[in-house]
Structure formats: structure tokens, C-alpha cells
Amino acid sequence: MEFRPSIVIKISGKFFDENDASANISFLRQVVSSLAGSYRIGIVSGGGGNARKYIKLGRELKLNESYLDLLGIWASRLNANLIAFALGDLAYPAVPDSLEDFVEKWSSGKVVVTGGFQPGQSTAAVAALVAEAISASKLVVATNVDGVYDKDPRDHADAVMLKELTLSRLREILESSQSVKAGTYELLDPMSMKIIQRSKIQVIVMNYKNISALTSLIKENKAIGSIVIPE
Amino acid sequence: MEFRPSIVIKISGKFFDENDASANISFLRQVVSSLAGSYRIGIVSGGGGNARKYIKLGRELKLNESYLDLLGIWASRLNANLIAFALGDLAYPAVPDSLEDFVEKWSSGKVVVTGGFQPGQSTAAVAALVAEAISASKLVVATNVDGVYDKDPRDHADAVMLKELTLSRLREILESSQSVKAGTYELLDPMSMKIIQRSKIQVIVMNYKNISALTSLIKENKAIGSIVIPE
Amino acid sequence: MEFRPSIVIKISGKFFDENDASANISFLRQVVSSLAGSYRIGIVSGGGGNARKYIKLGRELKLNESYLDLLGIWASRLNANLIAFALGDLAYPAVPDSLEDFVEKWSSGKVVVTGGFQPGQSTAAVAALVAEAISASKLVVATNVDGVYDKDPRDHADAVMLKELTLSRLREILESSQSVKAGTYELLDPMSMKIIQRSKIQVIVMNYKNISALTSLIKENKAIGSIVIPE
Amino acid sequence: MEFRPSIVIKISGKFFDENDASANISFLRQVVSSLAGSYRIGIVSGGGGNARKYIKLGRELKLNESYLDLLGIWASRLNANLIAFALGDLAYPAVPDSLEDFVEKWSSGKVVVTGGFQPGQSTAAVAALVAEAISASKLVVATNVDGVYDKDPRDHADAVMLKELTLSRLREILESSQSVKAGTYELLDPMSMKIIQRSKIQVIVMNYKNISALTSLIKENKAIGSIVIPE
Amino acid sequence: MEFRPSIVIKISGKFFDENDASANISFLRQVVSSLAGSYRIGIVSGGGGNARKYIKLGRELKLNESYLDLLGIWASRLNANLIAFALGDLAYPAVPDSLEDFVEKWSSGKVVVTGGFQPGQSTAAVAALVAEAISASKLVVATNVDGVYDKDPRDHADAVMLKELTLSRLREILESSQSVKAGTYELLDPMSMKIIQRSKIQVIVMNYKNISALTSLIKENKAIGSIVIPE
Amino acid sequence: MEFRPSIVIKISGKFFDENDASANISFLRQVVSSLAGSYRIGIVSGGGGNARKYIKLGRELKLNESYLDLLGIWASRLNANLIAFALGDLAYPAVPDSLEDFVEKWSSGKVVVTGGFQPGQSTAAVAALVAEAISASKLVVATNVDGVYDKDPRDHADAVMLKELTLSRLREILESSQSVKAGTYELLDPMSMKIIQRSKIQVIVMNYKNISALTSLIKENKAIGSIVIPE
Ligand SMILES: Nc1ncnc2c1ncn2[C@@H]1O[C@H](COP(=O)(O)OP(=O)(O)OP(=O)(O)O)[C@@H](O)[C@H]1O
Ligand SMILES: Nc1ncnc2c1ncn2[C@@H]1O[C@H](COP(=O)(O)OP(=O)(O)OP(=O)(O)O)[C@@H](O)[C@H]1O
Ligand SMILES: Nc1ncnc2c1ncn2[C@@H]1O[C@H](COP(=O)(O)OP(=O)(O)OP(=O)(O)O)[C@@H](O)[C@H]1O
Ligand SMILES: Nc1ncnc2c1ncn2[C@@H]1O[C@H](COP(=O)(O)OP(=O)(O)OP(=O)(O)O)[C@@H](O)[C@H]1O
Ligand SMILES: Nc1ncnc2c1ncn2[C@@H]1O[C@H](COP(=O)(O)OP(=O)(O)OP(=O)(O)O)[C@@H](O)[C@H]1O
Ligand SMILES: [Co+2]
Ligand SMILES: [Co+2]
Ligand SMILES: [Co+2]
Ligand SMILES: [Co+2]
Ligand SMILES: [Co+2]
Ligand SMILES: [Co+2]
Ligand SMILES: [Mg+2]
Ligand SMILES: [Mg+2]
Questions:
Q1: Half-sphere exposure of residue D117: CA atoms within 13 angstroms, side-chain side
Q2: How many CA atoms lie less than 13 Å away from D150 in the CB half-sphere?
């Protein structure tokens, strides 16, 4: 059995809300095609606007936080299905619903694409859990900003992007902005940071607009976005 | 074991796209609450704008018709989950993925909410299959028009709504407009009509804006929308 | 990953009712062995006499059409298991119960053998759905007549076999003989024709007595039975 | 929660091969209807002629004993489905595939109908396993002879039926006739006797032609067939 | 449908390691019997010494943290099975493996007993997730100390038990002692506190030696152990 | 598809109770690594002391034999998970719960590790069932004695180990010591012997302390322990 190192790519749900979503997915498909011979690849997709829409509806209907998170999870699974189908034979053609299910599908040797697993955690936590289970060498977080900033760039025009930072620095930065409500987890929630820390997973945060650059990021270690170093 | 007659309610996917979607669902919840003591209720939800969005993305990515339909099915399951969660203890808290799965969940005695089952057929076909399996006395199709018209009311300003019509008349009317492409099935596709015909299921087509009137439609046989009579 | 084009073989349930059924299956096994290196193969088996027996029993017990079809489906699954077991390591050793389940088992790279999926459709519809999902280049229908005739050969001694015909010609021919009752679907039901049409699947109808000729049909394009051309 | 004692009925596969099979099932349905208010009922069905047919086919195809038994199991599941569907709302509408699955479906409060579970054991062993798991007060074996004889009645015209016998006497009688090949298990195989012994399950062997008498057998302790007393 | 408020009982894995474990489980069974008519009950069991044993073995074999946690989860499932089986008909006879699976089994109306769900979180987090999903009025944590102390009582002889405290006070107390390694989560891990906080779940920490007092704790609001008040 | 002959290794549950359990598992891992290129390997693990502990608890709680066996089965699954996880990519990462499930996971091409399947039979019976299903050339029983003795070596200091014996000789020797109670099956129970006999499986009984010698036993036919010859 040949050995291929494993990587995990977490795709923001916002990726699917963009006007050129299918072009973006098409780029992702090319990246996966070019990497799949040398790497095993897990992909985790967020819920995006759809998650927010259904959580809002659920909140108006007075559902509890658990069911609101489940709606977000089901929205993320719709995105995951789209990616899995788009990857054709490269991918396992069904989306797992838990870490144990992921691990079983992963043993097929194919790319496995997943959405959320469980209430109480973001899809970033899913990505960290998956990366830990498959002993991934890298976890790439592709989102709608260029990397990790010293403050939330949405609210602070003067935020500065950090090319490299430690995990504890990241924790400090994010601590202020965390919310516990369904659908409002920021970038990396506490669960994902706990897993990243205990298993010393290398994290790279990058803009999904540069998704095509992922091939050189992985194959040639090209510096893109922010690299978070576990201590 | 007490006996409650069974009814099936097919909710258009467009129901979830309306601005007042949560109010609509709230009305549906009241209807189901008031009927659940005397009737067993199956609910089938369509995919709506979300289905169309993902099918469009999939088509741009050149997926085959089978996978396009699967994307529509997954979109309808998201809607089905929302209804199931909104119904709380009244409903079975998971969405079946096939007729056999539906039948198993139905045996719980709860309301069962489902989305699509299989490529090649609309959620109206799902509703007919479900109605047949549970020997439903009525299949209510709640959609975004007031009933069955003699021509497609979207294209013909002079279309006339029919308070009552036979299934063969309905077939004639729909025959012109049918398409076989994923996501474009009209009102009732050939599979649903075949099932309705062979099992002589009574169908009522009504506007989901009047969803609150469903209680009197069912309990008092109040005339709403169009009634389709199987021969 | 090497590429092998996909084909689907639909085996009539009558195949299992013949006196020399095991010899027939043995020939099928040889065909599959000789093709499996160059083609991915899906097999769909009908229910045959067993389906008819259980549907008859069910009808005497006044089961509804949905459960009658389910009995036919379970009969076809027994046949499918026999073929899957006979194929040994070449085949996935379990029979899927829906298109989604088929697709998942198909990703194993093995031959997948299936029976029916859902009430309201024949196993020919299953074969078409499977062929569409796996983008099969050919769907071979192996049945108890030599090909498509201009009339039902069972009833008309003067029926003439057609070596080649269009899908619309086939629709015309079959339209008269279609029944909607469980267990009585003819050759190709409306669902199968709809799928064949929309995905332009090439269909070949042949006698299962010539099953050994399938290798040259597939590998050398030898003309056997009738070829139905989608427009 | 009201308490209803549990009973298990093992129906010979030969029951489904009789000319008046649907009448027989109809009688069984009446028995179950009249008992279901006061008893919880598990039903196990054998494979009958169908099992033997498919095992014979499999043997001609040189399948191993494990797969031959699996074919017999699938045949018994077809019979089990027929009974389950015939019982309508009284029964759980799906057939379990293992003891653990049985136990889960049993918790629904419904009649559960099952066929075989595993190679290497007869459906009589399944019946004993089920009876043990649900702490059944009685296991009724309905077969094609009137009870237990002092020799195999098929081969010995002078065999005498025993109204009452101990389990060790039964073991002695059956020991001569046991075979280990798939599909040839007699009346009660060693696994079933082991379970019956360790859990001291009361067994009654009766002719399925008298199936209607089951109500008085259960409700009024009427003496029918042979009663086997565990020591 | 009658309404019964829901409660969750989290049983320490250490409960199963005690010499008088079966007596303890017997008391728990009595408590559940006396409460089940008026309350719906979810039970979560920890992994105890067994979890620690297998995690230690796994660590010696150099498994990653994800698989170590899975071993702990499987150990907790063994305990959960024991409780479920001991509760007989009161409980659902199978242990769920995720929150979604729990919710589905919960809809049976029975007591549902679960062990762990997912790597990266303790069974206390499972208990919180379950309590949130079923909108439980109370979450009782039965462990091997009498309640929450101002310091870890294992290490500090002078630790003082607090009859009542706020969630933020609890967070402060526990913050020092948290570890992220598999199998070493203390009392309540961050995930459980996050869920308790966002859904304002009332938590009671008590000694499992007093398990029999649970009936009066629930029915008569008797003060036992420590009560943690969400703000 | 390359052909690799199949072997089954049954590991005593006592293996996991030894002080040097992780070293033992490590040796097993080396053996499997060195064999996996040339052989397909099934592994069955017993329940050991853990099974006995939980069965004892269950017995004190008055569970029936079926549930006691299920507790033993769940204990054996914990051991099976540990082995499966320890084997990493070589093994299928989930433990099957029935023979049919085993067969499906086996088709992955990986090592499959299983615990118990069903009440009423030992994990030795599981091993025999698995060996039969996969047409294994050898079934190795690794236990806490050096081989088969002419009497139970635990009780008889003068017992003599037999390097070679027939299956009927083994049956004679074991007949005295068999018990039917849950958790007390000896070496090989009647079910396992029935399967071994009908499928003529070659059995080798050896001490798990020599587990490293398995490579030469398999590859070079080195004589270790006792060899049981089916007639
Ligand atoms: N210090 C920071 N650096 C970078 N981004 C930050 C920072 N603090 C907060 N953010 C926010 O995190 C957002 C990305 O996380 P968010 O959860 O919104 O998206 P996502 O997880 O990629 O998508 P989804 O949750 O829809 O799948 C950015 O848009 C940014 O506003
Ligand atoms: N124009 C036609 N040409 C060929 N066959 C036709 C035609 N019209 C009707 N038939 C009938 O179709 C039959 C084959 O379809 P049928 O559904 O009976 O078998 P099958 O699908 O192969 O088997 P099963 O349904 O048992 O799996 C033929 O036996 C023939 O009588
Ligand atoms: N001593 C005996 N008393 C009664 N029947 C016996 C005896 N010995 C052998 N038999 C045979 O057992 C048969 C019933 O067992 P058998 O396994 O054939 O049927 P079944 O289990 O009821 O059906 P199936 O296996 O098809 O489900 C009887 O037909 C009879 O010939
Ligand atoms: N402030 C505190 N008050 C009470 N207990 C504390 C405190 N800080 C730490 N602990 C420890 O928490 C332990 C209980 O948590 P622990 O996770 O060990 O057990 P559990 O979760 O009940 O069991 P298991 O994890 O085996 O299921 C106590 O034994 C105690 O030593
Ligand atoms: N004739 C015999 N030769 C060898 N061992 C025998 C014999 N008779 C009885 N035994 C007993 O069989 C035991 C092995 O079987 P046992 O079922 O106890 O262990 P196992 O099946 O390997 O483990 P577990 O059931 O825990 O998985 C030996 O310890 C021995 O005492
Ligand atoms: Co996010
Ligand atoms: Co529609
Ligand atoms: Co047909
Ligand atoms: Co039999
Ligand atoms: Co704990
Ligand atoms: Co043993
Ligand atoms: Mg029998
Ligand atoms: Mg703990």
C-alpha cells in the first residue's frame, strides 16, 4: 500500500454564496485533481448564507440551540454534497454524519467531503477533528479574508494580517469575538483550537479566492495567507 | 390501537422562499397540531429556490441529470428537517431517504416529514408514493397557485381555475408542459399521476397561502382549491 | 486511477425461472469475468415468477399496490443476491436498496448487483436510473425475447423484430401495452424511458439465452438483438 | 406501561408453498389480531421451497456453505416480509437481520416478523434466540407434521406422535437425523436446543394446518400438538 | 400526547468500577422506575477505569488522540449497554452513537442511555448536548465526590463544598485543572460549559453513592450536592 | 485483481488482560504487517476478563442469558476496536456486528477485526463462521494454553498436549467440559465445530504468547501448537 500524506481543506460556507461559486468549485476540483495522486484529502464545507437563513427561520419558530445548529449542519451537508458530486470518481459519493462515519468512509482511499457533525461546534471544529483522526500534516482554512488579522477585519479597517503566529496568539485575538449561539462561531471556535493544540496540527488560513494557489501551497510550501504554529 | 385515517400534505418548496416563511410554517404547525389527534399525517416538502440554485451550480459544473436531481433532493431534505424540527414532539425527528425508510419511520405513530427520495421523479411523486403506501384518504398539494387551471397560469392571463376535474382531464392539461430535466417537474409528474390513478387517491390542489384553511378542508370537507377525482 | 467505461446489464427475472438457471448464471459469470478488467459493470435483476407469486399472494390478502410492489422488489433482491454471491470477489457482496445506496456501493470499484428500488417503477427503471447515475455508455436489457418487436410477440405471431429503432418508435410500440398495476410493467416502463431519453442512454434489447454473446457485443460491438437509439 | 407476556411463533417455510398459502396467512392474521391485545408476539418464518431452490442453484454454482445459508436466509426474509405486510399496522413494517436488530425493532411495541439471522443455524434457532431475548413464555413451532414423533414421520409409517416429552428425549430422537449442510436443518437444530435448554423455554410443536387453533392454545392452554418440557 | 418534563442523568464511569456496582445500578433502576411515569429520562454514562485502561494501552501503541478518545467512547458504550439492558422495557435497547442518533431513539418515548459521541469532548459534554436537545429542565451529574468544591478535592484536603454556585464561578474553579488529553477531562469540560451556558441548563452535581436520593431531588426539589446556576 | 489466500486469527480475550497486553498487540501488528501483502486476514477477538466482569454484573441484576451474552459481545467489540485502531491503515476502521456486516467490510480488501456477533455462540463460533464465509485456508486459535490437550489442562496437571488430532477426537475431548451459560464457552463450542466440520476448515490452536511465531506458521508451515484435521 503506497503512502500518501493527508491534508484537510476547510471551505467556508461563504464560498457557495459567491456569484462565481461554480467557477470557484471548478478551481477546487482542479486543485484536488492535481493533488490526489500524492496526497489523501479531506474536505470540510461550511454552511454559509443558507445555514444562516435556516437558523434565522428556526429562531423565529423558537427552536432550541441544538436544533438550530442541526439546521446549520444540514445546510453544510448540502454544500458538501455539491463538492463531492463535482469531484466525481475522486470522491466518496456520500457525506458522513459523524467523525466515526468519516473515518469509515475515509478508509475507501477516496477524497471524503463532509459538512457539520454535531451541535455545539463549528465546521472548523469538524475540520480539526478530521485532521486529528487522519493525522493530517496540514489543515488549510479557506475563508473570505486573506488570513488571520490582529483584530476582526470586518469591524476594524486598521487590522493587520499576520503571516505567521502562534496558536496562543490566535487564541488571544479571537477570544474577544467568540459567541456561543448557533451559527455564529468565528473562524476557529474553542473546540477546534483545543484539538489543534493537543495534536499540534499546522493550520494555514487563506482566502478562498486564491483557491488555485493551494496546489503550490501544498506541493511547494508556497507562503499564502497566515500560518498558525502549534506550540 | 385506535384508528386515525391518514392524509398527506405536499408543501411546495417555494413555501420556504417566501418572506414570511416562518409565519407560514407556524400556521402549518397549528394545522398539524389541531389535526394530529384525529389524523395520521405525512408531509412532503419540495426543494424550492434552493434546489434550483444548487441544480444550476451543478449544471455549470457539468454533473449528470442523476446528480442534479440528488442535489434537488438534498435541498428538499433541508426544508423537511426544518418542518420536522418545528413540529417538535409531534414529528419523527429525522427525514427518511426512501419509501421503505418512510414506512419504517411512519410506524412510530408520529407525523413523518420527508423530502425527495430518488432521481427521476418530483417530490409530488414522493407524495403520491407515500399516500399510496399509507392508504391515505387525501393528498393535499399546497403550492403557489390557487388550484389547477386549464392552462399554466404563469404564462396565460386568461387561465381559469377548475374547482373540480378528473385525473384524465388533469393529464391532458399538464401533458403539454412536462419536461424531463432535473428540477423542472410540473405540479404533478407522470410518476405521481400513475400512482394516483392506480390507487385512486383523491388529490386537492390549493394555495399554501391558505394553509390555515387546511383544518376545515380536512375536518369539514370545506371546498378549497381544486379537487381532482380519480376514475 | 485507471478509467473503465461503465455498462449496465438488466437481467430479466425470468432468467431465474428457467430449468437451466444455474448454467445461465454461470455464463453470465464468465461474461462479467472477461469484461471486468476493461469495464465497470452494474447488474440489475428482475423478480420473475417469484415476484409474481408473492404479488399474487399479497393481492389475495388485499395489500395495497405499494406493498405489492415491495414484495416484487424483495423477490428481485433474492435474485440479485444470488448473482452477487455467484460473482464472488468481483462483486460487492450486498445488494443496495436505493439509488443513493447503489452509488455508494459503486464507489467500491466492484460490480454492483441490485434488484428493485421503489414501488411504482419496474426494475427496468432501476436499470435506467443506475445507467444514468454512473454515466454508462450502454444499457443491455437481457430478456426472454430476441429483441424489440413491432408488436408484443407474446400475443402476435406475426410480430417482426427490429434491429434498430429510435426511442420514440419504441414508445409508440409499447404505449398500448402498458399497465400500472404492481408486477405488470412491460419491457420498459415510462420512468425508464424518461431517464433513457433525458440522458441519451444507448439501449440494447437481447435474449438472455445469448448471454454469452454479451462479451463480443460489448467488446466488438457485435450486433445482437435490437438497438434503441435515443434522439 | 401495561405488561403483556411475550410469545414466539415459528412458521415453517413450507407454509408459503401450500396451494392455500394466502388462506393460511389470513388465518394467522386473525390469530395475531385476537392475541395482540394481551400478548406481545414475535414471528419467525422459515424459507421453504424457495430457500431450497436458491440453495440448489447456489450449490450448482459451487458457492460455499456460508453463502448457501445466506440464500436460504434471504428466501426466509421474503416470507417474513409477506407476513409483516399482511399484518398491516399490527406489525413493524421491516424485517430485522440480526438478534440485536430484532431487539431494537421489538421495542416499538409491535409484532416483529423475522426470517433468518446468520449462516450455520436454522430459523428454529432464530426462534429460540428471539424467545430467549424477549423472555417469552412459549415458543410455538408450527410445521407440516402434527407434533414430535418418536421417529421421523416422513420415513417411518409407524412413528408415534408424543403429546408430551422432555427436551432430552427430543434431543435423543432428533440426534440421528441431524445434518450440518445449509438448508437441511431438521425441526430443531442443536443451537435451538441449547438455547431452549439454558433458558428453559416451553416449546409446542403443532401443525400449521391448525393455525387457527393457536388462539385457544395460547389463551386457554388448549392441548394441541406436542409440548416439550425443558428440565 | 401527555407531557412529561425531561431530565438528564450523567453517571460517572467510576460508578461501574465500584465493588458494589450492581447494587448501585439496582438503585438507579429503582429511581428510574419511580420517575419514568412523570419524567422523560436521558442517561449518559462515563467510561471509568475501563476507558482509562484502553486509552493507556492505545497510548503505549502510539495511537493518536482521536483514536484514544474513541477507545474511551467504546468503553463508555459498554457501561451504557449495561444500564440500558438493566432497565429492560423502560429503556431503548440500543445505545446511540451521535446526538442525531440520540434524538431519533429519544422519539420512541423510552429512557435512552448513551455513552460518548465524539472525540474531543467528555461524556459530560454529551450530557449537556443531550440536555439541550431535549430541553431538559435539569442535568444531574452523579460522580465520586459530593458536589463542586472550591478546589479539586482530590488534591486539596481543605477544599470546601459549595451548595450553590454560578456557572461563571464554576468556570473559574475548573479552569486551572483542565487538560486536553484524551481521557483526562475533569468534571465538566469547556464544551459542556458552553452548552450549559447558552441554553441555561440547571446543573446539579452529586455523589453517585446517594443515587437513591435522586427521586426526592427531582420530585421534591430536595437539596443534594451542589446546584450550579446559569446566568 | 491479485489473489491472496485468506486466514482467520482468533485472539483470546485473555490476551487483553495480560500485563504486557500492549506489547502483545504490538507483536500481532508486526505479524499482520508482514503477512498482509500475501494474505487476506480476518481477526476475531474474545471478550476476556471484561466480558466476565460485565456478565457477572448482569447476572447479579438478573438479566436473561441473551442480554448477558450481548454484554460479552460488547466487551469483545471493545477489544476488537483496539486491534483495529492499532493496525491503522491496514485494517477496516470499524467493527462489524454480524456475519453479513463482516462480509461487506471484508470486500474493502482490508484486514477486518471483529468481536462477537450473536448470543448463544462464542467468539470461536464467530471465527469459524468468518473462516467459512471467506473460504479461509486456515483458522488459527491463539489462546492461553499451548494447544489442545487430552484433558482440560486447567484442571488436570497430567494433561498431554496433542500436536495433531482429528476434529472428532477434539469433539470427544471437549464434550465433557461444555457449558451453555453465557460467557462460559470453552475453546471451541458446538457451533464452531459444526462449521469447521461442514466446511473442512483447518484449525491450529496455539499460545498467544508465541504470537510472533505466526508469520512462520503461516508462511513456512512451521509446526506450532496443535493442528486439528477435519475429516
Ligand atoms: N482576527 C481575525 N482574523 C481573520 N478573520 C477574523 C478575525 N476575527 C474574526 N474574523 C472573522 O472570521 C470570519 C471567517 O469566519 P466565519 O466563521 O465567518 O466564516 P467561515 O467559517 O469561513 O464560513 P462559514 O462559517 O459560513 O462556513 C471572517 O470573515 C472575519 O470577519
Ligand atoms: N414490442 C415488444 N417487443 C418485445 N417484447 C415485448 C414487446 N411488447 C411487449 N413485450 C413483452 O415484454 C416482455 C419482456 O418484459 P417483461 O417485463 O415481461 O420481462 P422482464 O422485465 O425481462 O422480466 P421481469 O419483469 O420478470 O424481470 C416479453 O416477454 C414480451 O412479451
Ligand atoms: N421426530 C420427529 N418428529 C416430527 N418431525 C420430524 C421428526 N424427525 C424429523 N422430522 C421432520 O421435521 C420436519 C419439519 O422440519 P423442517 O425443518 O423440514 O421444516 P420446517 O423447519 O418447519 O420448515 P422450513 O425449514 O422450511 O422453515 C417434518 O416434516 C419431519 O419430517
Ligand atoms: N472543584 C471541584 N469540585 C469537585 N470535583 C472536582 C473539582 N475539581 C476537580 N474535580 C474532580 O472531578 C472528578 C470527577 O470528574 P471525573 O471526570 O474524574 O469523573 P467522572 O466524569 O464522573 O467520571 P468518568 O470520566 O470516568 O465518567 C472528581 O473526582 C474530582 O477529583
Ligand atoms: N482439552 C483442552 N485443551 C486445551 N484447552 C482446554 C481443553 N479443555 C478446556 N480447555 C480450556 O480452554 C481454555 C481456552 O478457552 P477459553 O474460552 O477459556 O479462552 P478463549 O476463548 O481463548 O478466551 P475468551 O473466551 O476470553 O475469548 C483454556 O484456558 C483451557 O483451560
Ligand atoms: Co464559520
Ligand atoms: Co415541483
Ligand atoms: Co419486467
Ligand atoms: Co427447517
Ligand atoms: Co469525566
Ligand atoms: Co472463549
Ligand atoms: Mg425448518
Ligand atoms: Mg471522566
A1: 27
A2: 5
Domain ranges of chain E: 6-229
With 0-12 CB in 10 A as exposed, 13-18 as middle and 19+ as buried, what is E156? exposed
Q: What is the DSSP letter of E223?
A: -
What distance lies between CA A73 and its chain's CA centroid?
Answer: 13
Q: Enumerate chain B positions whose Cβ falls within 8 A of a Cβ in E.
A: 89-90, 92-94, 108, 110
Strand order in the sheet with D164-166: D112-114, D40-45, D6-11, D138-143, D203-207, D226-229, D164-166
For an interface test with E, give the residue of B89, B90, B92, B111 to mutate (most E CBs within 10 A). Answer: B89
Going by the DSSP 8-state scheme, the letter that residue A182 receives in this structure is T
Which among A57, A82, A85 has CB closest to B82?
A: A57
CB C126 within 8 Å of CB C116: yes
E6-229: which CATH topology?
Carbamate kinase (3.40.1160)
Helix D123-133 to helix D190-198 angle (10° resolution) is: 20
pLDDT band for position C49 (cuts 50, 70, 90) = very high
CB contact under 8 A, A104 and F94: yes
pLDDT surpasses 60 at D192: yes
Give the residue among E139, E141, E119 at the shortest CA–CA distance from E187: E141
Helix (H, G, I), strand (E, B) or coil at E95: coil
Which stretch of DSSP H or E encloses residue A83? Answer: helix A65-86
Q: Read off the pLDDT of each residue in B163-174 and give the average, rounded to a whole number.
A: 93
Residues of chain C found within 8 Å of residue B196, distances taken between Cβ atoms: none
Residue B206, beta-bridge partner list? B142
* Span B22-73, pLDDT tens digits: 999 999 999 999 999 999 999 999 999 999 999 999 999 999 999 999 999 9
**Would the CB atoms of A107 and F90 count as touching at under 8 Å?**
no
What ipTM score was computed for the predicted complex, to two decimals? 0.96
SS3 of B67-128: the string is HHHHHHHHHHHHHHHHHHHHCHHHECCCCCCCHHHHHHHHCCCCEEEECCCCCCCCHHHHHH
Ligand 1: does its nearest atom lie under 6 Å from the Cβ of A173? Answer: yes
At A128 the three-state DSSP class reads: helix
Q: Which residue has the cell 461442514?
A: F198
Interface contact flag, A104 F93, Cβ < 8 Å: yes
Using pLDDT thresholds of 50, 70 and 90, give the confidence band for residue E58: very high
What is the tens place of the pLDDT at every residue in F135-177?
999 999 999 999 999 999 988 999 999 999 999 999 999 987 7
